[in-house]
Amino acid sequence: MDEQHLIIEEPFSIGSFFAKVIHRFKYGNTPFNGSVMNIQNSFSSSWGLGFDSHPGSIDEAIIDSKNLNRSLFVFVYCLENPLTHKVINVFLQQSVSDEIRQHFIFLPLDCTTVEGFNFANSFEFHSLPMIALIRPRGNTLSQSQVFVKHEGYISESVLLSFIRVENRAPQTEVQQQDDEFSRALVEEQERQRRAEEEEELEKKMKRRFEEERDEVEKAFQMLPDPSEISDRCTIKFQLPNNQNMTHSFPRDGQTKMLYTFIRKYMFPKQFQLSTGYPPKMIDDTDSIIKDVCKDKQFIIYVQEI
C-alpha cells in the first residue's frame, strides 16, 4: 500500500502544535479550528484500522491487558508530525493489523494530552511517534515490563519482528515470568511491610523515650530547693565517668530523691547507688536519707547496671 495521509492535516508548525496543546489544557476535547482533537476513543475507526483502540487511561489499559492475558501496544503520536501518518499506514498492513488484533490491546495516546505527554516524557523520548510494547505486571505502568520502545518511523518488517517475538514466547516462559514477578511482588510487599513495622516501632520507641525524658526532667524540677532546706545533708555523687556532682537534700527526705536527682544525668542508663565501705546499696524507695547515712556530708557512688 502506498504511503499517504488518510486524514488531511494542515502543515506542521511549532506554533500550531503548541496552540493545540494550550487549547487541550484550556478546553479539553472541544474542537480546535473545526477539527476534532480527541480521537483516542475512535482512533481505529477514524483511520480505518483493523483492530480496536482502548478508550481508557494507561492504568486501565494495563489492567485490561493483564485480565485478557495480552500485551499492551502503546502508540504515542502527534497529528502534526508527518511520520505519524506513515506509521499508521504501516498499521494498516494486513499482517500487522492481524497481529495487533489477535495479541495486543492497542492504546493510542495523543502527545498533546496530559497523559500522552507524561507517558512519553517518562521514557525521555526524543522523537515521535513512539511505540512501547508492555507486558502488564501488577496494576500500574511502574510495575509493568516495557520490552520494546521505538521512536520515529518503523517499517512493517521491523514492527512484525518486535510483536512476533513477543507472541512466539512459549506460554511456559510467560507463566514463569509471571510467577517470578508474583514472587518478587510478594517479597517487595513483605519488605515494605517489615520496613513500615520497623519505622512504626522506631517512632513508638522515640515517643516513649521523649516521654520518659520529660518525666525525668519534671521530677528533677520538683526536688526541694537546697536554699530552703534547714536540716540538710550535702552529698557528693561520684559518676561512672569519674565526674563528681554535689547537691543538698533534706535529711528527712526519701532516698528516691537521690535517684530522681542523678537520673537526670544518667538517663536513659540504668544505675545503682551505694555509700560507705564496704559499699551499702541505697534503694529507690521511701526510706529516709538520714537512716541510710547519719552524717551531714557523705559520698554516694553511682554504678551503671
Written account of the structure:
With 305 residues, the chain is α+β, with helices and mostly antiparallel strands. It has 3 domains: 156 residues, 3-Layer(aba) Sandwich (Glutaredoxin); 45 residues; 79 residues, Phosphatidylinositol 3-kinase Catalytic Subunit, Chain A, domain 1 (Ubiquitin-like (UB roll)). The strands form 2 sheets. The protein has a 5-stranded mixed sheet with strand order 6-5-9-7-8. It has a 4-stranded mixed sheet with strand order 2-1-3-4, with helices on both faces. The N terminus is likely disordered.
Question: What's this, in brief?
Answer:
The chain is α+β, with helices and mostly antiparallel strands. It has helices spanning 14-27, 43-47, 58-67, 82-91, 94-103, 114-122, 156-168, 171-221, 256-266, 289-292; strands at 71-77, 104-110, 130-135, 145-151, 232-238, 244-250, 271-275, 280-282, 297-304.
Task: List descriptors.
305 residues; alpha+beta; 3 domains; rod-shaped; single chain; Ubiquitin-like (UB roll)
Spell out the blueprint of helices and strands.
Elements: H1 14-27, H2 43-47, H3 58-67, E1 71-77, H4 82-91, H5 94-103, E2 104-110, H6 114-122, E3 130-135, E4 145-151, H7 156-168, H8 171-221, E5 232-238, E6 244-250, H9 256-266, E7 271-275, E8 280-282, H10 289-292, E9 297-304
Parallel strand pairs: 1-2, 5-9
Antiparallel strand pairs: 1-3, 3-4, 5-6, 7-8, 7-9
Helix pairs in contact: 5-7, 8-9
